[in-house]
Amino acid sequence: MNTEIERGSLGDSFEDFLKEQGTYEETTEHAIKRVLAYQLEQAMKEQNIGKARWRSGCTPVDRSSTGFLTPTIRG
Fold first, then answer.
1. What's the confidence (pLDDT) of residue 47?
2. CA 64, 65, 70, 74 torsion: positive or negative?
3. Average pLDDT of the residues of the chain
């Protein structure tokens, strides 16, 4: 195997690649939202809270944030 590859010095980092493509900010934002949604889902499962029960305990402001956690697919 190439020693440059083994040491990890070959090429740019993935973050640099995304920055070059102009998608770093959008990709990072999307990844953070997905992690938060996953963590919320896991916490709800641990506490046996369904989506309907969770929504019923939220204020209108809280409910409006659920769209924030919904990933969107852009073409």
1. 86
2. positive
3. 75
* Alpha-carbon span 12 to 45, nearest angstrom: 39
Distance in angstroms (rounded) separating the CA atoms of residues 54 and 63 = 9
Burial class (CB in 10 A: 0-12, 13-18, 19+), 54: middle
* pTM (predicted TM-score): 0.54
Tokens 């440059």 label which residue?
4
3-state secondary structure the chain: CCHHHHHCCCCCCHHHHHHHHCCHHHHHHHHHHHHHHHHHHHHHHHCCCCHHHHHHCCCHHHHHHHHCCCCCCCC
